[in-house]
UniProtKB/TrEMBL annotation:
Binding site for ATP: K115
GO MF annotation terms: ATP binding; metal ion binding; tau-protein kinase activity
Pfam families: Pkinase (PF00069)
Official protein name in the record: Serine/threonine-protein kinase NIM1
Organism annotation: Oncorhynchus kisutch
Gene Ontology biological process: intracellular signal transduction; microtubule cytoskeleton organization
Phylogenetic classification of the source organism: Eukaryota, Metazoa, Chordata, Craniata, Vertebrata
Gene from which this protein is expressed: nim1ka
Cofactor(s) this protein cannot do without: Mg(2+)
């Protein structure tokens, strides 16, 4: 992560304006160098030699000055309360190899989830998984899959800055409030199903689909996250690594030496659907060994009050033989989901902002022009963007760009018709009809990734 210093400002004259300034995570000697600046010194920047007021500093210039001169900001950078352009707040989750904190972008004020990994604990296998996680997230463009904004690296830690969802996990909601209604189950499952189809269409296997990795952004919009075990794999390519959570594990993971990733994801969808409509897991045991036996036997009981079309779908998914399971396309066309208009994958969008500096206004789409204007207001110039080339997601300029682009996409989604709709028969109460239609928008408060 490199600071984007304003042109002509700061003691490091050789690097100012080149986007190759001091690392945001660096401390020690740099702090002592900046400590000899005073706030009185910084005020001179706003005037010329004759005392005539000069132009007002841009938000980017002010932020970079604060990161160099402001005692409080420098202290926050030193102790890890700031990472690059992000103010770091309380912990919101933890995983096997990481913990997740809430962050706030200092320029845009957007909330983000920051997944923090200790580099000293990353062995080669974990580093490969992390690389796959980043590449999987950047390969996907779907309204129900969380986005990666930026990767910030310091001497000791790696930070994945991602979408934040204020609604929490699907698992927590069901555990606290009980099973979902039939209508809510259809709306939520259709979004998950559409997201998984997009993954498989792009040769990505998630391998850790579960209710804990589905996150609410509003009352009826969810996103699939945590691609830490994901991998790139053709539909006919066999895998041999056991991944994921045992309660969601397909029988072949316990039984065979190799498995097809697509069928493992499909089995997990069946377990998740069972949990959504019943509030319980289909396979339960006190130990992993007993759980393994339950899964291999394929013994589970569907409550009679689950609608018959839904029962047929669950039975079609939870088939012991992988080739006998419903495909994603068959699930989307099943009777239970007939009233649902599935969300659609987005047109691939540019992850790098360099084209904004090289295009004329007439060459840009509406969202892109909006983002370029927003970047200019923040003080990010074409020079900054061009100096940013080749850094991919490991750049503060890219982070700001992706956040602003996502904001524009969300605004377009709000202005358009709902992506998920539900046709409710006249026998359903008015309360349920209203519930089905309320907040059916892909508005996202961003997403927690564990």
């Amino acid at each position: 992560m490199t600071a984007v210093c304003p042109s002509g400002v700061g003691p490091a004259g050789a690097t100012v304006g080149s986007s190759r300034g001091s690392g945001a995570g660096s401390t020690g000697g740099q702090d002592r160098r900046y400590a000899r600046w005073s706030r009185q010194d910084s005020s001179d920047i706003a005037t010329d030699d004759e005392g005539v007021p000069a132009r007002q500093l841009t938000p980017l210039e002010r932020l970079n000055l604060d990161m160099c001169q402001d005692d409080r900001v420098v202290r926050e950078l030193t102790v890890g309360r700031r990472i690059g352009f992000y103010k770091v707040r309380g912990e919101i989750g933890c995983g096997n190899f990481s913990h997740v904190k809430l962050g706030i972008h200092a320029l845009t004020n957007d909330k983000v989830a920051i997944k923090i990994l200790d580099k000293t604990k990353l062995d080669q296998k974990t580093q490969r998984l992390l690389s796959r996680e980043i590449s999987s997230m950047e390969r996907l463009h779907h309204p129900n899959i969380i986005r990666l904004y930026e990767v910030v690296e310091t001497l000791s830690r790696l930070h994945l800055v991602m979408e934040y969802a204020g609604g929490g996990e699907l698992y927590t909601k069901i555990s606290m409030e009980g099973k979902l209604s039939d209508i809510d189950s259809k709306i939520v499952f259709s979004q998950i199903l559409s997201a998984v189809k997009h993954m498989h269409d792009n040769s990505i296997i998630h391998r850790d689909l579960k209710a804990e990795n589905v996150f609410y952004t509003c009352s009826t919009c969810v996103k699939v996250g945590d691609f830490g075990f994901s991998t790139l794999s053709r539909r006919d390519e066999t895998l041999n690594t056991f991944c994921g959570s045992p309660p969601y594990a397909a029988p072949e993971l316990f039984r065979d030496e190799h498995y097809l990733g697509v069928f493992v994801d499909i089995w997990a969808l069946g377990v998740m659907l069972f949990f959504m409509v019943t509030g319980t897991m289909p396979f339960r045991a006190d130990t992993v060994a007993k759980l393994k036996r339950c899964i291999l036997e394929g013994a589970y009981v569907l409550p009679s009050w689950v609608q018959e079309p839904c029962q047929r779908l669950i039975r079609g998914i939870l088939q012991p033989q992988p080739s006998d399971r419903c495909s994603v396309e068959q699930m989307m066309g099943c009777e239970w989901l007939l009233p649902i208009d599935f969300p659609r994958a987005m047109e691939p969008f540019k992850l790098d902002p360099s084209y904004l500096a090289e295009s004329t206004p007439s060459e840009l789409e509406e969202d892109e022009a909006e983002v370029r204007e927003a970047l200019e207001i923040l003080g990010i110039t074409p020079e900054h963007i061009l100096n940013n080339q080749g850094k991919d997601c490991r750049s503060s300029v890219t982070g700001v760009y992706r956040i602003l682009l996502h904001r524009a996409h969300k605004r377009r989604a709000v202005e358009s018709m709902p992506v998920v709709t539900h046709v409710v028969g006249s026998s359903v109460s008015k309360k349920d009809r209203l519930k089905a239609y309320h907040s059916l928008r892909h508005t996202s408060k961003l997403c927690v990734i564990l």
